[in-house]
Amino acid sequence: MNEIHDNLAPITLTFMTVFDWIIISLILIGIILVLWQIFFRNKNKIQKVVENKPKKQKFVPESFSFEKELSRIEKLQQQLQWKIFSLEATALLKKILEREYNMKFDFATGKEVQEIMSKKNISSQKKQELKYFFDLIDPIKFADAQGKEEIAKEVISILKDYNNYFKK
Fold first, then answer.
1. Are the beta carbons of 108 and 94 closer than 8 angstroms?
2. How far, in Å, are 80, 81, 93, 112, 141 from residue 148 at the CA level?
3. Nearest residue to 117 (alpha-carbon basis) of 103, 107, 135
């Protein structure tokens, strides 16, 4: 077999010539740049977004102050705004009860409040005062009855009485 191919030079495969090394190094540099762009640039952008995001202030509800609420109700009484007076008085009574019993009374009607309180351990006098309170307030709230100074004084005294009763 040697005789047939004597005039041809032996074939040698040249892997990795200088040209091949240059192409491989350019491809690797390109891959590194793409990876750097994906991972490190995005981290910087995310950090900038997080840094620029305004900090939210926590909502801290104003603490309940019976005196402040009562003075607001008394102002409504003086201004003869009976409907708002009755709504605010009812809301104040519900806040007093919520504070004492850790229950929500926001959406309870007067009748429901009375039913709930009938199951609680309070005196029968307090239960009667509660019924009397709603008997005074409900006509003003629901029937647009005209309020009177005597009614307002009774309502305010019941509110004070309930507040003092639960302070003990």
1. yes
2. 9, 11, 19, 26, 13
3. 103
Lowest mean pLDDT among 5-14, 64-73, 94-103: 5-14
Query: Are 91 and 75 within 8 A, CB to CB?
Result: no
Cα–Cα distance measured from residue 144 to residue 113, given in angstroms and rounded to the nearest whole number: 21
Q: How far apart are CA 103 and CA 100, in angstroms?
A: 8
Radius of gyration of the chain (CA): 41
Query: What's the rounded Cα separation, in Å, for the pair 159 and 89?
Result: 8
At 82-111, the pLDDT tens digits run 888 888 999 898 888 888 888 888 888 888
**Helix, strand, coil tally for the chain in percent (to 5):** 70, 0, 30
Q: How many helices (H) and strands (E) does the chain have?
A: 7, 0
| Residues 156 and 70: beta-carbon distance below 8 Å | yes
- What pLDDT, in 10s, does the model give residues 102-151? 888 888 888 888 888 888 888 888 888 889 988 988 888 888 888 888 88
The pTM for the full model equals 0.61
